[in-house]
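During the first year of the project, the team set up a workflow for recording each protein of interest as an amino acid sequence followed immediately by a discrete structure-token representation. This format lets reviewers and collaborators read both layers of information side by side without switching files. As required by the reporting guidelines, we include two representative entries from the current panel. The first entry is reproduced here exactly as it appears in our internal archive.
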Amino acid sequence: MEEIDRRIVTLLARDGRMSFTDLARETGLSVSAVHQRVRRLEKRGVVRGYAAIIDHDAIGLPLTAFVSIKPIDPAAPDDAPERLAHLTAIEACHSVAGDESYILKVRVASPVALEDLLQQIRAAANVSTRTTVVLSTPYEHRAPDVTAEPAPIQEGSA
């Protein structure tokens, strides 16, 4: 990816509503050149969409938790994401290495709602759960700085 495209991606990650005029000013390109580059980044799938960042407290979902799940029967099909897709309290589902198979990020209204959701998760996917409740979130939704060059991989590193 060209350096100027990296700069555009970094700026859009920080503010997805940044105008083409502002992007042009920040990158030193013309508005039409920025417009073309953004459209090309969207077409290539580098920029996959734009989203609002919601204040979950304001909409009545103040409790965030991470729920690690592990199948009760290790021989069962690995279909937990499909079995849990209907549960809208699950904000994210990450396949992970380690003891558990997936880590779910969930948002609910209360501890009672979390307990109910955990029962639904266990029943729907036939899994055991381990839950970590979030006490506070100092930062989230941090924009990546793709203008920085990736660190070289050294031999013998894992």
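The second entry, processed by the same pipeline in the following quarter, appears below.
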Amino acid sequence: MRTLLLLVFYSISLFLISYFLLDVEGMVVNAFAGQTEMEIPENVLLDALEDMRYWNKFSVLFTFLLLLVKCCLIALILYAGLFFANLHREVKLARLFKVAVFSESILVIAGLVKVVIVSVGDFTYSEFAVFYPLSVLTLFDPSEINSLLIYPLQLVNLFELVYCFLLVFFFQNETGLSWGDSARVVLTSYLFALVFWLVLILFLTLNFT
């Protein structure tokens, strides 16, 4: 129950910080206004903004569900790592779910840092969409690199490294395994899943752009 409440706290924190600091609607309007190659009727723009305001009411719920699904998947991935290492005995999936929820805190902090930086900077909507703090992507101009490289460069960031460390740390606390076994199980299973996810995203990007 405490882990679910923690996910609710994550969701509310992201919503409130974004609501009070970000003017996403203004960025979207400016993005449409800058579309010189095509004219967008005013009624279409107003309808799009109205739809955005409507769905924004459910953003806390959507964020909670996304975090819940992600943490469940991470718990399953860690359990699969334990299973293939033959170390899964007496380890319950709920404990691995707790590991995933606690570790997710650093990625929530990354999201909050992104919102704060964007709120004090001069970002367009497209720049906001691809920006990720302390990532390799920040060393490049996203408009000048291949779109296929954007997500991989976002993924290589300091917060992701800390996330991997927290996964190992909380995993070791919950399972009682040695640091070596914990690191081996967590990193092999998580990194394998991460590479699979990256390939999937690149495949979808290649086929829909």
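For the second entry, the following points were noted during internal review. The CA atoms of residues 69 and 75 lie 10 Å apart. The chain has a mean pLDDT of 88. Both points are flagged for discussion at the upcoming steering committee meeting.
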